[in-house]
Amino acid sequence: MIKFCSLYSGSSGNSIFVGTDKAKILIDTGLSGKKITEALISIGEDPANLSAILVSHEHDDHVKGLGILSKRYNIPIYANEMTWQALNCNIKGIEHKNMKYFNNSKEFEILGLGIQAFSIPHDANDPVGFCFYFKGKKVTVATDIGHITPQLTECIEGSDLLLLESNHDIKMLEVGAYPWWLKQRILGEKGHLCNEVAGEVIADMAEKGTQHFLLGHLSRKNNFPQLAYQTTYNALTERNICVGKDVTLEVATRDKAGRIIYM
């Protein structure tokens, strides 16, 4: 059985727990070590028992607590080579034995939990999403996505549970207070995924068999949970997919651990 919980999800910081009876893994550590420790304890997990931290990319909202957590609890960190190059410029004091590398094109394993990183279009060195495989179940995390590619679609297909970015509402972003250059970055090919595209992708995946969905990485200023939820709800309903019957749909919370999901 896979235990999954989004500890924090949003433009202000991201961290996700994925575990089995043996493997205990964090995806990203984009808040303080204290906050992530508190969130782990709140879902019944001891941070001292973590098997690994996986890094999707080097942006601060994904790695803020990385150094302190690894050093405090002696946790191995897994990232690809290009991400490590960026991390080494900003995070000091990681023990060499805790610096682990993965290849985006090769599945690897941590204590029986299969893991496949896959490339995503975002303005970082070599950003990735992750698929997890255990006893016939597949759980996928895909955020910080500028646009949907055929390769990305292929990677997320067949998931039992999918956490997908639903970062912003385009109209809110366009009329909001962000400077022009930042709006262009978010809307660009290597920026973030809007509500409408997230809704269509989830509807596509639902038609292909995925039943459980979380919307994640919402912008604090250019989105709100009810709008993200309703946009995807509408996309599903237009294809005669019933939320609550055919699929489950939730929004990952920004400031506290969400519901624990077992797959």
Structure description:
α8 (195-207) crosses α9 (225-237). The strands form 2 sheets. A 7-stranded mixed beta sheet has the order 6-5-4-3-2-1-14. A 7-stranded mixed beta sheet has the order 7-8-9-10-11-12-13. The protein has 9 helices and 14 strands. A hairpin with a 4-residue loop joins β2 (15-19) and β3. It is globular, with a radius of gyration of 17 Å. The chain has helices at residues 33-42, 60-63, 66-73, 81-90, 150-156, 170-175, 180-187, 195-207, 225-237, and strands at residues 3-8, 15-19, 24-27, 52-54, 77-79, 99-101, 108-110, 113-119, 128-134, 137-142, 161-165, 212-216, 248-251, 261-262. 46% of the residues are buried. The longest helix has 13 residues, at 195-207. Helices cover 30% and strands 24% of the residues. The termini are close together. The protein has one domain: Ribonuclease Z/Hydroxyacylglutathione hydrolase-like (Metallo-beta-lactamase, Chain A, 4-Layer Sandwich). The protein has 263 residues and is of the alpha/beta class.
List keywords for this structure.
single chain; 263 residues; alpha/beta; Metallo-beta-lactamase, Chain A; seven-stranded mixed β-sheet; 9 helices; 24% strand; globular
Topology of this protein?
Elements (H helix, E strand, L loop, with lengths): L2 E6 L6 E5 L4 E4 L5 H10 L9 E3 L5 H4 L2 H8 L3 E3 L1 H10 L8 E3 L6 E3 L2 E7 L8 E7 L2 E6 L7 H7 L4 E5 L4 H6 L4 H8 L7 H13 L4 E5 L8 H13 L10 E4 L9 E2 L1
Parallel strand pairs: 3-4, 4-5, 5-6, 10-11, 11-12, 12-13
Antiparallel strand pairs: 1-2, 1-14, 2-3, 7-8, 8-9, 9-10
Helix pairs in contact: 8-9
